[in-house]
Write a structure and sequence with these properties.
With 191 residues, the chain is α/β, with parallel strands linked by helices. It contains 5 helices and 6 strands. A 6-stranded parallel beta sheet has the order 3-2-1-4-5-6, sandwiched between helices.
Length: 191
């Protein structure tokens, strides 16, 4: 049987591995939550706090009874330390994503995407998390200078959103380089 690439970085099976998914209330995050539960992970799902007590895409997952949902905000460092307790692996997807709105409120994007990532990485480091998977975006590459685009492609911030994600990637990578935080950066593309 092939080893799953999402298995815990160690020798044990994913059964009982405690995963935190930030941005779990989004489209990708909610589907990731379902997949992790189906593979035996114990999942804590972060939904952005709102006064309606609405969990976004998590409202429709089939595994609601099998997950712990916490409502909060990655901009709150104290909250990040609290949600990181007893976590083995972090899938960090929480971010502001609407590119057009980033032109209107760029400070919101820096605050959430950069400072929020700083808070997640610091809390993960303090909690001795085994791995952080930081989700970036293909937007960091801007308009392709060559194809296929690879990790060596220059970063080109063409919107406040993409600039904030470049900053978030740099913060995350600095925690790997400076503090040996086990980190993977994923940059999904829309195709």
């Amino acid at each position: 049987m092939e080893k799953n690439t999402l298995d815990h970085p160690g020798s044990r099976s994913p059964d009982g591995v405690r995963a935190l998914v930030t941005g779990a209330d989004g489209f990708i995050g909610s589907h990731l939550v379902e997949m992790l539960v189906s593979r035996g992970y114990t999942v804590r799902a972060l939904a952005q706090y709102n006064s309606f007590n609405h969990w976004g895409w998590l409202e429709d997952v089939t595994c609601k009874d099998a997950i712990e949902v916490v409502a909060g905000d990655i901009r709150d460092a104290h909250f990040c330390r609290h949600m990181m307790k007893d976590v083995d692996v972090v899938f960090h997807l929480a971010a502001l994503i609407a590119i057009p709105y980033s032109y209107i409120a760029p400070d919101s994007y820096v605050d959430t995407n950069v400072r929020g990532t700083l808070n997640v990485c610091q809390a993960a480091l303090d909690a001795d998390v085994k791995r952080v998977i930081h989700t970036s975006t293909s937007e960091v590459y801007g308009t392709a200078r060559y194809v296929p685009i690879d990790e060596k492609h220059p970063l080109q911030p063409q919107s406040p959103y993409s600039a904030s994600k470049i900053g978030a990637d740099a913060i995350a990578q600095s925690f790997q380089n400076s503090f040996s935080l086990p980190l993977t950066v994923a940059r999904p593309f829309n195709t």
